[in-house]
Amino acid sequence: MTTTVDEATREAIRERLAILEGEVAAAQAHPSEWLRHTKAVDPKTGEEFFFHFDKGWEWQREELTSYLQNQVVLRLKARQLGVSWLGIGYCGWKCLTKPGTRALCVSINETESIKLAGRAWDLWENTPEHLRFDAKVIKPERGRPSSRIEWEFPDGRISSLIAMPSTPRAGHGETASVVFLDEFGRHPFAAESYKAFIPVIADGGQMLIVSTANGYGNLFYELWMEASDRAISAIFLGADKHPGRNATWFKQMRQRLSTADMSEQYPMNATEAFLGTAGCWFDVDAIQRYADRCRDPLYRGNFLVEEAGDKAKFTRRSDGWVWVYDQPEAEKDYAIYADIATGRGKDSTAAVVIDLTNMNIAAELQRTRPDRQVEFVIAPGLAATGDPRLLEVALQNLIGNAWKFTGKRDRARIEVGAEDRDGKPVYFVRDDGAGFDMAHASKLFQPFQRLHGAMEFEGTGIGLATVQRIIQRHGGRIWAEAAPAMGATFYFTL
Questions:
Q1: In sequence order, what DSSP letters do the residues of 15-68 get, joined into one string?
Q2: C-alpha–C-alpha distance, residues 383 and 256, integer Å
Q3: How do strand 488-492 and strand 478-482 relate by DSSP bridges?
Q4: What is the mean predicted confidence (pLDDT) over 28-32?
Q5: pLDDT at 232
Q6: Average pLDDT over residues 464-491
Q7: Stretch 273-279: mean pLDDT, rounded?
Q8: How confident is the model over 435-446, as a mean pLDDT?
Q9: Which residue from 151, 255, 269, 479 lies 20 to 30 Å from 227 (Cα-Cα)?
């Protein structure tokens, strides 16, 4: 039996095929053109989730474009913006359009990592047949995945998407084309995972790091503060990115939620996100107003705790300090301070007076090598004002460097002290170790630059870059003086 198809039907078929071919080409070129044809369904509520990329959501397409253009992406985000969906969607798109891709996705715990695998599966299940790019699922063999999805392509290549919880061994020994670290600020083993995935970057792979804030001083915060030094694309995605939120909505949420919850879920700037989730309850809007009006290099603010989370009063003292405060109460500790170090209103650091002689760094080093003969000379009463955690990291790196580069001496001396120069303290860490040629001093604070061979002295090449960033965050500078085989002295101001 022969079926006759009229010309109008043929034309309609040709037009439909052209549309499908155009959709395939567009989806191969950009992840948004694949995601706009998928959807996810909440297994509990049945609610459907779509990507539209219009009506105020255009920024999501720009986000995906940024993923295509940058090797390491860092996003500090508010909740309910779909950013985690963008991350897992991008990983799924890479697996389907680049056969042989291996995507590793790490979340806080096993429950959350299973959710990531489930999200990737939902997007795949709801993808039209012509946008599956001839991929065939070989794992899981049945049902929903708990940790792994594998697709096989006609040419035999296999793409894998593997979800795993944050553990001390997550990522160790793994290879990947793209790594997605979801809610990284809350990973219990963030440092171990990040270190394990550094080879992915070195091999040309991608890393997407996404999180809400979880205080300051953790690895996520450090990556945020050091983003420019590490060639990381860092962007804050605030609560106002959601097109359905207006001033009335924010007013209602502030009435319902504590300051801490607002800072974590719906922050409007990075200062609020990091310091608010650290428990610094002060008037962030007042800080922002002050910072926007002041462009000098350093302004200092003294912020007193207000445990109820209410708005505090805001004044400027005659001595130049900005003071956000509430009426002090007896038997409460009001020892929270903050610097507005750049005048931009977003680079704030908690600051207290620190006893630099009481950090036990020397004792910890001596415990690692009790056989070494090293004399530590640390000036008594040495103190500074700054972030205690960050300054301890800086001293650990500087004293650790001195310890390392005196390692070939039978007897060594490491000195930590301060000198008065023009009425201001200049701190220093001095050793009598290997030293270096000052002709190469310009490389000292550049990430991954080493003045000594890896076989001679171990190290990652990022320690001094980290120190410089911390010192600069405190409004200071760092420099060094040295000579080969004559030791080195690192000076810094705060």
A1: HHHHHHHHHHHHHHH-HHHHHTT-EEE-TTT--EEE----TT-HHHHHHHHHHH
A2: 42
A3: antiparallel
A4: 96
A5: 93
A6: 86
A7: 71
A8: 80
A9: 479
Q: Give the burial class of 223: count Cβ atoms within 10 A of its Cβ; 0-12 exposed, 13-18 middle, 19 or more buried.
A: buried
Q: Which amino acid is at 264?
A: E
Res 308 pLDDT > 90 = no
Structural tokens at position 289: 């107003």
d(CA 74, CA 76): 7
Residue 407 has which token pair? 């390692």
2: left (phi over 0), alpha (psi -120 to 50) or beta: beta
- Paired strand residues for 83: none
Q: Is the Cβ–Cβ distance between 284 and 257 less than 8 Å?
A: no
255-281 mean pLDDT? 76
Rg (CA), the chain: 27
Q: How many CA atoms lie within 13 A of 66 on its CB side?
A: 20
Can you read off the two tokens belonging to residue 278?
């650290």
For residues 101 and 150, what is the distance between their CA atoms, to the nearest angstrom? Answer: 10
DSSP string of 272-286, one letter each residue = HHHHHHTT--S-HHH
| pLDDT at 1 (0 to 100) | 56
Q: pLDDT digits over 192-212, tens only?
A: 989 999 888 888 899 999 999
Domains detected in the chain: 11-241 (3.40.50.300), 291-348 (no CATH), 354-492 (3.30.565.10)
d(CA 322, CA 302): 6
